[in-house]
């Protein structure tokens, strides 16, 4: 196995761990996946957030206000150049609101977000998130026969 292949697999694993931490609502795991300095995030519809405090606070707010979320990543592309890696993917998101009064599951909503995740290799060889940028995908409204209307995908993390 070549070094490049090993790096790609390590970056893929770090990228997967990022989404799994959000799905579990695990702030400790999420915090360990990010670099200490110079980080940024753009959640769909949000302004750019910079610095560890702002970035982690944004995830804490999202996770505190999301009862259920699951990511199905497609179109994953990984590129590694030296100690920097770029991951682009489509986040197929399934999220849900609060449970109904009778205990049944709340409504589920799907959405599409295209994301770019940038990773840096730390001096100890670990890949950490440097930046995440998510943009909603506009999809055609099936009710519009003319194809002229679009709906914005749901907001992702």
Structure write-up:
The chain has three helices and eight strands; from the N terminus they run ααββαββββββ. A six-stranded mixed beta sheet has the order 2-1-6-5-4-3. A hairpin with a 6-residue loop joins β1 (about 40) and β2. It is globular. α1 packs antiparallel against α2 (about 25-35). About 25% of the residues lie in helices and about 40% in strands. The two termini are about 35 Å apart. It has helices at about 5-25, 25-35, 50-65, and strands at about 40, 50, 70-80, 85-95, 110-120, 125-135, 140, 150. With about 160 residues, it is of the alpha+beta class. It has one domain (about 5-135): Nuclear Transport Factor 2, Chain: A (Roll).
The stretches of 5 or more residues where confidence is low (pLDDT under 50) are: 147-157
Strand element count: 8
Distance linking N and C termini: 34 Å
Which structural class matches the secondary elements?
alpha+beta
| CATH topology group | Nuclear Transport Factor 2, Chain: A
What is the CATH level 1 assignment?
Alpha Beta
Alpha-carbon Rg, integer: 17 Å
Fraction of residues in β-strands: 35-45%
Series of H and E elements? HHEEHEEEEEE
CATH architecture: Roll
Number of domains: 1
Describe the largest sheet.
6 strands, mixed
* Outline type: globular
Number of helices: 3
């Amino acid at each position: 196995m070549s070094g490049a292949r090993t790096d790609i697999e390590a970056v893929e694993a770090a990228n997967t761990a990022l989404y799994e931490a959000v799905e579990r609502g695990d702030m400790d795991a999420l915090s360990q996946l990010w670099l200490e300095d110079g980080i940024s995030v753009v959640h769909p519809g949000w302004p750019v957030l910079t610095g560890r405090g702002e970035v982690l606070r944004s995830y804490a707010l999202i996770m505190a206000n999301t009862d259920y979320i699951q990511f199905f990543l497609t179109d994953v592309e990984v590129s590694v150049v030296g100690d920097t890696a770029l991951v682009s993917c489509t986040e197929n998101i399934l999220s849900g609101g609060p449970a109904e009064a009778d205990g049944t599951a709340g409504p589920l909503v799907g959405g599409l977000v295209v994301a770019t995740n940038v990773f840096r290799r730390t001096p100890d060889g670990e890949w950490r998130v440097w930046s995440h940028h998510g943009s909603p995908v506009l999809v055609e409204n099936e009710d519009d026969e003319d194809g002229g209307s679009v709906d914005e995908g749901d907001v992702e993390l």
